[in-house]
Amino acid sequence: MKGSLPIPRPKSWPPRTIDNELGIATLSLGNWREHKLGPRLEAAAEAGYHWIDLFDECWAAYLEEHGLDGKKLWEATPENLQVAHKLGELVKSLGMRISCTQPLRKIEGIKDPVERRATLDLVAKRFPFMRAFDTDLVFMCASIRSDSGVTSDLKMVAQDLAEMGDMAAAFSHADGGRMLRIGYEGLSWATRNTWSASWEAVRAANRPNVGLVVDAFNVLAVEWADPPNPAGHGRVYGAIEESVTLLCLSLASLVASVPGDRIFFFQVGDAELVDPRRLYREPLDPETPALLPWSRGHRLFPFETSRGGYMPVELVAAAVLATGYQGPMSLEVFNNSLNVAGKNVPPEHAARGMVGLRKVLEAVQRVPPFWDPSVEVSIEDLVLLYYSNRQVKPNI
C-alpha cells in the first residue's frame, strides 16, 4: 500500500507479554431495553475493562433517559452534544474510554447518486459526537443489501470507503483534533463475508484512516463453523483436521498480508454448539440470513465450554497478535441471556467476559506459530491443542 509502514511483527513467539488492553461492547453487558447504560458501565469498570464499544441503540436509549429523542441520535444539537460529553466524561470517571461507535450498516455500493450522497452524509453526522465521546473510530459492517440498487463491485466499494476516509480527514483537519478513522468489518452473512474480502476493499481504498475490523466470531462463522451440522464445524470438509487446516491456511495469509497497524479493531467472541433441530425448528423468513438466529441468540464469551462454546477463538487471536496489532481486544457477544431483566445481568456478564478474555490471553501463549513457514507445526498438534484448551477428550 502506498505510504504504508513496514509490517510490525513481534520479535519472538510466543510473546513475553501481551499488552493489548481489554474491552467490551455495551450490548454484551445487557440489552438496552432492560438495562440502563450507567449500571452496565459500572459493571464493566468493576470487572476491570479499559475500553467500551458503544452501540447505537445504547446511545439512543441514553439520550432518551435524558428526555431527548433517541431517533435523532446523530443530530448535532447543543442538547444532544451536551449529553454526549456527559457520557464521555462518565466513562472516563470510571477509568475507561470509549473505543468506538458502531455500527454503520448498508452504506457502501449504493448506485443512485442522490441516495449515495445522503447515506454518506449520515456517516459525517457522527463526527461531532465522536469528538464529544472522545473516540476516533467508527466502523461499518459490510452491506447485507442484495437488491438491484446496490453493487458489490470492488472499485465502487473502495471508492465509498475512500470518500468516507476523506470526509473524516477533512473534519479532523478543520477542527484540529486527532484523525478520525473508519473501520470496515466483514459480516459472516454479508456480501463481503471474510476478512480477506474486507481487506481487499480497505487496501483498494488506500487511505491511512480506513482500516480493517477483525471479528473472531465472523471469521470463524465462515471459515470454521457450520451450525446445521451436529459437529458444529466442517463447512467444507467433515473431519476436524481438515477444518483446522483450512482455518489456519486463511489465518496464515492474514498474518502475511495485513500489517498490524491496518487492523483498527479486534473483537472476540465464541458461540454455542446448538442442536440444529432447535436452531432451525421453524422455517426462516426469506429475508433472514441463515446465520442470523445463531449469531444474535447464541454467541458466548470465549472458552465457555460448559455453555456449549466450541470455536477456536485462540487461533484467530494468535494470528491477529502476530500481525503486530496493538489495539484493544474487545468482546462482542449477543445472547438471549442479555435480554433478561434483573440487576445481576450486567455484572454477571461482565465477569464472565473477563474470565473468557483472560483465558484467551493464556491460550494464545500455547499456540505455535503456524503462520511461520520456518517453523514446523503439525495439524495433529493443533487439533490436540484445540481439545486440550477446552479440556475435552479428543474426538479423533
UniProtKB/TrEMBL annotation:
SUPFAM superfamilies, sorted:
Xylose isomerase-like
Specify the Xylose isomerase-like TIM barrel domain's residue ranges: 41-349
Q: Which InterPro entries match?
A: IolE/XylAMocC-like, Xyl_isomerase-like_sf, Xyl_isomerase-like_TIM-brl
| Residue ranges crossing the lipid bilayer per the database entry | none
Source species, domain of life:
Eukaryota
Q: Which Pfam families match?
A: AP_endonuc_2
The signal peptide annotation in the UniProt record is none
Official protein name in the record: Xylose isomerase-like TIM barrel domain-containing protein
What organism is this sequence from? Cladophialophora immunda
Q: What is the lineage of its organism?
A: Eukaryota, Fungi, Dikarya, Ascomycota, Pezizomycotina
